[in-house]
Amino acid sequence: MAETIIRFGIIGCAEIARKVSRAIALASNATVTAIGSRSLDKATRFASANNFPPDAKIYGSYEAVLDDPDVDAVYLPLPTSLHIHWAVLAAQKKKHVLLGKPVALSAVEFDTIIEACESNGVQFMDGTMWMHHPRTAKMREFLSDKQHFGQLKSVHSCFTFGADRDFLVNDIRVKPDLDAHGALGDSGWYCIRSILWAVDYELPKTVIALRGPVFNEVGVILSCGASLSWEDGKVATFHCSFLSNLTMDVTAVGTKGTLHLHDFIIPFEEKEASFSAGSELAFNELVTGWVPLPSKHTIRTDLPQEALMVREFSRLVENIKAKGLNPEKKWPTISRKTQLLLDAVKASIERGFETVEVGN
Amino acid sequence: MAETIIRFGIIGCAEIARKVSRAIALASNATVTAIGSRSLDKATRFASANNFPPDAKIYGSYEAVLDDPDVDAVYLPLPTSLHIHWAVLAAQKKKHVLLGKPVALSAVEFDTIIEACESNGVQFMDGTMWMHHPRTAKMREFLSDKQHFGQLKSVHSCFTFGADRDFLVNDIRVKPDLDAHGALGDSGWYCIRSILWAVDYELPKTVIALRGPVFNEVGVILSCGASLSWEDGKVATFHCSFLSNLTMDVTAVGTKGTLHLHDFIIPFEEKEASFSAGSELAFNELVTGWVPLPSKHTIRTDLPQEALMVREFSRLVENIKAKGLNPEKKWPTISRKTQLLLDAVKASIERGFETVEVGN
């Protein structure tokens, strides 16, 4: 049976939409059908600059994309504060929703989005691309390997990048009315997700923000960190920032194994990505070296992770459209947990670094 | 002028003394002259197993080593609780002191040791070997390079190892009367030192222990962590444990550079050691990869780091003995700051994870 091609509408011409447009073109089960911007001119330029199919429709509004019956799914790379409006509206118009991160300003707000998706039978997925890299699946295998990794004990994640002056003045991620969570919402989202991923999405019991967050003059977080702890003794920390050199680490340590990688969100190279795995590492007899050494694992991928994300999302949409299956709940569930922890870190900062119990 | 050979006495037959005996043999300006153990038999076996010079003196007590006029310096690989007694006595007997870590049960106790060393004109150094690896100097150059590393913003350090059942029952590091600080005193010492090293020994303003420390049934720490913050906004975290696979990370992130290494205390191999340095790392135009990539720097060393430590210590002793210079204060100062932060983490844990202001 021929693959159904899922037809995407793109809402807005954000920088990140360039990468996702290419990803949609690369995914064999997806195509770009429409783009909408508040400026028709901008949408036209975007379509041309990003090699849209000649028959792609170009609209001067977001609504027009949602009203187009030829659009199956939308990609929403909008500022966080606009998510609730446009994601809910998209769902109501029966469009499947691929949403930029962070998914909302709060988990409560996100619940409205999930509710709209569920009641309209549409698939939800957030745009956390690294989840779809085959390396991620390979690392999951290692973390789940009781014999070689054992029981997870601690995770550390760090995502920082050095924003330039223009970013720190003009980017939506430093504006309280657009991406109100700043570095926590942007880079912290990935750190939190990586920690959740490592613990197989078990929510921690408590979250405490670390001292020393940095804010801009209008109160948006430019740098912060947190410590998370689980009932069973697992612990995690993360640090996220717009003010440091590009760094992208995950370290997960188990009773028997250690996982390291330094490019978890955007792999150093598109076609292959590595991680380091060490199992039952020890010192030599005189404690002057290690035996064995950790080993490097490299995973090739023909499609970049963002195209694999689009392909997976489109596959789930096809399951609904062509096979009558229900939307896959795994993705909104993961998004919600990530948002819940983001909320907890924010709350801890606001309450002067108090311990925040994580609810549901 | 011929090099003066510093004559070492070793106090006790701890496991680590094997490695340091070899280091003394390897250092051209040092030799083992004597060993003392509470058991003459044990000392005899140790001397023979570790290829001591045939004329090395073997004593059935620690005191005898201190009373030997042919001993210039002593290496004290004793349980922490015994440091104050033996280090002070050694200093009073005019022996230069190379002391295992942690240096004392508290900074207050350590001050007594420093005082004894100062008033007797003897050199003090703690046995933190990685400080003396040429890699450490090379990494210091990178961290101090304003153009390529910029201003330090955050540090994360992790040292864990999976102690076996025998260690967790019998090792001195799980005994409240011997090494009362457990994993904090043993592996946490190195984490704290690496953080201090990265910030060029500037003490943080506050220290807070992280939730989730693990204790054994007699209250000794088996796993813990802390968050440190500085007046100028620098932040650091560390995690240390006896309960996880061997992991040994330092990550230091500056405004323009990132340093990573995964074997900071004991290099993977004896003859060469590496670190990763990235400077002004960024994404490519479509954010599908990094340009430039971090680069790996490998430093060869003919002598292992513990022999370089012995050589440096012996050089300082020679400066005092042969040239009439004063003891080098850098080393006890660094030891004291490390101990001070160790005390602060301990205090924070004991006070229910309160913020501890770091004094002097």
TrEMBL record, chains A, B:
<feature type="domain" description="Gfo/Idh/MocA-like oxidoreductase N-terminal">
    <location>
        <begin position="6"/>
        <end position="125"/>
    </location>
</feature>
<dbReference type="Pfam" id="PF22725">
    <property type="entry name" value="GFO_IDH_MocA_C3"/>
</dbReference>
<dbReference type="InterPro" id="IPR000683">
    <property type="entry name" value="Gfo/Idh/MocA-like_OxRdtase_N"/>
</dbReference>
<feature type="domain" description="GFO/IDH/MocA-like oxidoreductase">
    <location>
        <begin position="145"/>
        <end position="259"/>
    </location>
</feature>
<dbReference type="InterPro" id="IPR036291">
    <property type="entry name" value="NAD(P)-bd_dom_sf"/>
</dbReference>
<comment type="similarity">
    <text>Belongs to the Gfo/Idh/MocA family.</text>
</comment>
<dbReference type="Pfam" id="PF01408">
    <property type="entry name" value="GFO_IDH_MocA"/>
</dbReference>
<dbReference type="InterPro" id="IPR055170">
    <property type="entry name" value="GFO_IDH_MocA-like_dom"/>
</dbReference>
<dbReference type="GO" id="GO:0000166">
    <property type="term" value="F:nucleotide binding"/>
</dbReference>
<protein>
    <submittedName>
        <fullName>Uncharacterized protein</fullName>
    </submittedName>
</protein>
